[in-house]
Amino acid sequence: MSVPDRQDPGEQDPGEQDPGEQDPAEIWGRRIGRGLGFAALVVLGYLLGRQLALW
Fold first, then answer.
1. In this structure, is the dihedral angle defined by the CA atoms of residues 15, 16, 21 and 23, taken in order, positive or negative?
2. What digits encode the pLDDT tens for the residues 12-34?
3. Which candidate, 50, 32, 52, places its Cα nearest to that of 40?
4. Distance from chain centroid for Cα 30
């Protein structure tokens, strides 16, 4: 007896793209969010270095 192929009904086909990938607002929102996240990482790293008297 073979086991039936069970798939989650909410599971997406790997070949399908997310509709948000075509939306310019989604693309720019991601770019801006990642840029702000990187800037925050740099600033917090600098402040940590100052607190630990590394520089």
1. positive
2. 665 567 766 789 999 999 999 99
3. 32
4. 8
Residue whose structure tokens are 């840029």: 35
CA 7 to chain centroid, in Å, comes to: 26
Q: What does the pLDDT average to over 4-13?
A: 62
Here the tokens at position 27 are 């693309």
Query: What is the separation, in whole angstroms, between the first and last Cα of the chain?
Result: 69
pLDDT at 10: 63
Q: Round to whole Å and give the CA distance between 34 and 27.
A: 11
What per-residue confidence (pLDDT) applies to 45? 96
Say how many C-beta atoms besides its own lie within 10 A of residue 48's C-beta: 10
